[in-house]
Amino acid sequence: MDNFITRRRRHELLVAAGLLVFAIVAPMFIKDVTTLNVIILSLLFAGLAQAWNILGGYCGQISLGHALYFGMGSYVSTLLYVHAAVPPSLGMFAAAAVGGLAALLVGWPCFRLSGHYYAIATVVVGEIGYLLFLNWDYVGGATGVYIPIARPSLLNLQFGKDKLPYLHLVLAFCAATWLAAWVIEGSRWFYAWRAVKDDVVAARSLGVNIFSSKMAAAAISGAFTGLGGAIYGLYVGYIDPDSVMAGHFSILIALPAVLGGVGTLWGPILGAALLIPMKELSSSYLGGSGRGVDLMLYGAMIVIVALAQPQGVVSLFRRRAHGPA
Amino acid sequence: MLRLENLSASYRGLKALQGVSLDVAKGEIVAVVGANGAGKSTLLKSIAGHVAIEGDITFDGTSLRRMPAHLITRLGVGLVPEGRRLFPRLSVEDNLRLGAYAKRGTADRFRPLDLVFSLFPRLQERLPQRAETLSGGEQQMLAIGRALMTQPRLLMLDEPSQGIMPRLVDDILAAVQKIRDLGVTVLLVEQRLAEALEIADRAYVLQTGRVVMSGPANVIAADASVRRAYLGI
Predict the structure, then answer these.
(1) B63: CB partners within 8 A, 6+ apart
(2) What is the ipTM of this complex?
(3) Which residues of A touch B146 (CB under 8 A)?
(4) Which residues numbered 19-78 in B keep a CB inside 8 Å of some CB on A?
């Protein structure tokens, strides 16, 4: 049994390494900017969804306030750059730290609630953050902040018009979140979180500290989300509360994981690979008049998945992991 | 080993326990019996730290009064909760592994596996199966096995006979006796009075949150009023 698990895990790592090499090389032959843009956003949201999955999937705490950590991440690295001349290559780690810290601060009161009540609380906290940033002049308020254009350099993580370096940056981010999830699956946290997710009473009587388990998952999840926010800010070059902190971002972050398969290693990536291209294509084809149509397509897709494959798209690709069921 | 002094607990606003005092000595099997709603489960939950209490509980001289539940488990108090509370979609193996979580980081955390398999050979056969596919009796075995993985010095069982074929009830209770013989003290809550009293050394009878009678198990079993009240004879 142990051998089977180690073999499966090594197999997963090999598949991931293969995909990574492919994802590094293949885009070098793509010249179309729109395509590259779609790939970049897909990878970014795959990483964000994986980050969400660590808390929402593995630990079962459905957060609908991740836009807060995402937005704070992009604000932290941007403002550090604008106000303190800290290069974004360092600033993004500060963003990760702030994202993780923010998740702990939110978790401290909110984890006293469970299930739906927790989810609703995170929505409210996210909205509070959004309103706060909207009316906070130091961070640009509703006008937002431009990231000053600098000479292309690795230190500033600015690459001018060249999209490929950005692609490799978000790819690294996506790979890091995947690796984090993979490490978690092999750790004792995986079991503790699973217990917290499935049955709090049982978890408690097995010696699992419920609160600190949730907090650990939240910190990791929030940190990666903050990191993703920083990278997103760099990529788009301009941030305001509507573009990085609005409530629909929380949904957008959670959705690929839910669609692809909650609490699975590949679900978030698969979900993002399906969702983001569809969203981008529908909004570019349908243009301004099509605002909202992409979201309707989302809705339709989720309904279909929920009806046909309630375990997520990922379950199409695997047989049942555990014996006859 | 375990001492409850004047323990009271409220559950959803109702007083479930009112001034219960109880002792468990090392190596004993102590049964707590009583009708539905007498406060038996609340008693175990109080000891395990799942409900707020008044009064005091000491375990090997340590007060459990303000201790969080997970630390009580790590101190050596194992609970097989009412209704088993397995992780239905996890395999038998993963359920057992989760039991060892309390001892994480220690080299011998999977040591009780041998013991669990010798008590319940069937679990070994069913290792890769999902817990939800087990029969009621096997699920109870798994729940006990999982609690043993926490390496308890005191094992508390909440109605292990619930929802199990009569033939298996004897098997389960025989296993409980073996567990005691291996050095684990047992606090057993049961509605099935006769079976529980057969394996217990001493017993407490609980009625609406109070201890109404206590003494050697055979004395309780022979008492006419208990027999009338709970055995329907």
Answers:
(1) B56, B57
(2) 0.84
(3) 206
(4) 48-50, 68-71, 73-74, 78
